[in-house]
Amino acid sequence: MTRTLTPSDERFHALLRTFEGRPAATAGRAKDVVNEPMIRHWCEAMGDSNPNYTGPDAIAPPTMLQAWTMGGLSGHTDRSSAYDELFELLDGAGCTSVVATDCEQEYLRPLRPGDTVTFDAVIESVSPRKTTKLGTGHFVTTRMDVRANGEPAGTHRFRILKYAPAARPQTAGPETARPQTAPQRPRRPRPVINRDNQGFWDGVREHRLLIQRCTACRTLRFPWLPGCNACSSPEWDTVEASGAGTVYSYVVMHHPPFPAFDPPYAVALVELAEGVRIIGNITGVPYDKVRIGLPVHLEFLRVDDTLELPVFRGGAG
Q1: Contacts of 56 (CB under 8 A, 6+ apart)
Q2: Alpha helix locations (H) across the chain?
Q3: d(CA 186, CA 183)
Q4: 192 CB burial (10 A radius; 0-12, 13-18, 19+)
Q5: Phi/psi of residue 179, each to 5°?
Q6: Which class in CATH covers the domain with range 9-165?
Q7: How far apart are CA 85 and CA 226, in angstroms?
Q8: How far is CA 117 from the centre of its chain?
Q9: CATH 3.10.129.10 spans which residues of the chain?
Q10: What number of other Cβ atoms are within 10 A of residue 60's Cβ?
Q11: How many other C-beta atoms lie within 10 A of the C-beta of residue 105?
Q12: What is the CA radius of gyration of the chain?
């Protein structure tokens, strides 16, 4: 959603656009060559058992493209000042919060163990002022061109929203409070339902957690996909999860506070008894007591009048 721009907005956006085309990193170099341990860790975390990622002729999963360019906690010394200067301008305009919105990747050649990864990054675009449910600000898109041993390997576009948080609704004081008109709680974001995952959400409405199963090789998969990632067969049926699982990994969300969410809370990658993994909230256990290996069991939480979600309650159930 774009609001009508005032002249001052147009001048500010014109200033922001002077950063388009400026380098964010030049002649960057990955801290490590493409290597089997990182590939293995990635595949284990993603639950991806594709045989192309193991053995003497292994390639790296294409979606790892950005991972090889990350600078870790110490960062990269080849980063330019343009990105910091742009952020200072946006901070000065009140856009002090940031959230990652999406990324796009294009693959030109596979990456293999031993490849040396280099890259250049450029600030590709800065949007006009936009108004979202989080607040008002500007989308900044960075394009990274990745090379392997000097050859083009892929392109990674990363988009963030730098925004001024929307004001929270003010509740009335005691002298003006109207108990009969309590402020309505904001609704949770709606899940994106399409032809590939419609069956999963149909199951949730019936309080069933359904896992896809390839009818050709019998491999279970989650999240739902249009084809098997083990044998590529498009044919599948479903099995119903028992609901038992353990916490495989987790994070505790503290900031920023979004409408309809009350941080801090724990979000976990749960390994189900069937062997697949699913992301969900942990309930029944204080957020600071969640641990890897914690037994959990499935339950369904109604968050508003039209949305119910699978969550996991701590304890053996």
Answers
A1: none
A2: 7-17, 36-46, 82-92, 198-205
A3: 9
A4: exposed
A5: -55, -30
A6: alpha beta
A7: 43
A8: 24
A9: 9-165
A10: 26
A11: 16
A12: 23
Candidates 228, 233, 248; CA nearest to 294 is 248
267 forms bridges with which residues in the sheet? 251, 281
The two tokens of residue 144 are 């990274």
How far apart are the C-alpha atoms of 190 and 22, rounded to whole Å?
37
**Cα–Cα distance between 276 and 48 in angstroms, integer?**
10
- Whether the CB-CB separation of 5 and 128 falls below 8 Å is answered with yes
Phi, psi values for residue 41, rounded to 5°: -60, -40
Least confident of 63-67, 208-212, 237-241: 63-67
pLDDT of residue 71: 84
Given phi > 0 = left and psi -120 to 50 = alpha, else beta, which region is 27?
Answer: left
**Please, is 120 exposed, middle or buried when counting C-beta atoms within 10 Å of its C-beta (0-12, 13-18, 19+)?**
middle
Amino acid letter, 231: C
Tokens of 26: 């030049």
Domain boundaries 198-314, corresponding CATH code: 2.40.50.840
CA distances from 221 to 228, 229, 237, 256 (A): 8, 8, 11, 32
The answer to whether the peptide bond before residue 264 is cis (omega within 30 degrees of 0) is yes
The pLDDT tens digits for 207-216 are 999 999 999 9
Rounded to the nearest 5 degrees, what angle is found at the Cα of 289, between the Cα atoms of 242 and 281?
A: 45
Strand pairing of 308-314 and 277-283? parallel
Question: Is the pLDDT reported for residue 317 higher than 80?
Answer: no
Which pair of tokens denotes residue 158? 């990363």
- Range(s) within the chain of domains with CATH label 2.40.50.840: 198-314
Q: 183, 187, 184, 133: which is closest to 304 by C-alpha?
A: 187
